[in-house]
Amino acid sequence: MRLPRVRTVVTCLLLASTPLLLLSRGARAHQVWLEQDASGAKLYFGEFGDNLHEVSPGFLDKVTLVSATVLSSKGEKAVESKKDRDGVSIAGRAGKGESVIAVDVAYPLLENKDGAKTLKTAWTPAARYVPELGPQQPKLVLDVVPTNGSGEFQVVYRGSPLPKAEVSLVAVSGWSLSGTTDDNGKVSFRLPWKGTYALLVRHKDATPGKRKNAQGVDEAYDAASFATTLTFATSAGLPSPPAPPAAPPNKP
Q1: Burial class (CB in 10 A: 0-12, 13-18, 19+), 131
Q2: Is 221 helix (H, G, I), strand (E, B) or coil?
Q3: What pLDDT was estimated at residue 7?
Q4: Which of 116, 138, 142, 177 holds its CA 20 to 30 A away from the CA of 101?
Q5: Contact 243, 173 (CB under 8 A)
């Protein structure tokens, strides 16, 4: 198994493929992620390691149609989601051995030029939250799940392990590691700090297709791109350095 490589600059970890750079003139490569408190879960859009949360009105409004589910040994339960100023509130939470997952199924198509041709990419940002590390079953099209309680994870795409996937681990302080999955889609990280981590994986599929937009109308795309984040908290380790100051949201 390839060992994780230490990187000191979080923004280097979160660079996207060219189409994702079209999120905005000022926005960098974003992701969504889930956090949870006693009242429920919440989906954020921005950059976890930079403490950047997009807001509404603003770039948060590009997140248009969030589907949220609580996964447990009893099955799946769809839960409501509602956009507020700095995220999307999820009317459900994960207990021991459970997960909350959320996916924007109709993020606006991204466009970039290839000579005279305009290529359209269907970007799907998704997130999973687990309150503790332990084996979880994949569910999302592109998913990353813990396989044990010791920092091993597996990346799965359309139900099959995804080898050679670049995975980034970021703590709330901005401390980060990166690694590459093995032939079984697995990667391991050391987790030195107490607190919350975000594990990010991206994958691009050059297969064209169709999907429904937020208005329920079919739209064709040339390629599909996925960005999935797993967030989890640990109680073992050293006290975490503080989060960086909140970054200002991007202006439309």
Answers
A1: middle
A2: strand
A3: 39
A4: 177
A5: yes
Positive or negative, the CA dihedral 179, 185, 191, 197 is positive
Type of residue at 78: A
List CB contacts of 35: < 8 A, sequence separation 6 or more: 41, 42, 44, 129, 196, 231
Residue spans of alpha helices (H) in 29-110: none
Q: What is the mean pLDDT of residues 206-224?
A: 95
Cα 3 from Cα 190, distance rounded (Å) = 10
Four-residue CA torsion sign, 127, 128, 133, 136: negative
Residue type, 86: D
CB 200 within 8 A of CB 27: no
Residue pointed to by tokens 């079919």: 218
Report whether 89 contacts 114 (CB < 8 A). no
47's CB contacts (< 8 A; 6+ apart) are 10, 11, 14, 28, 29, 30, 31, 247
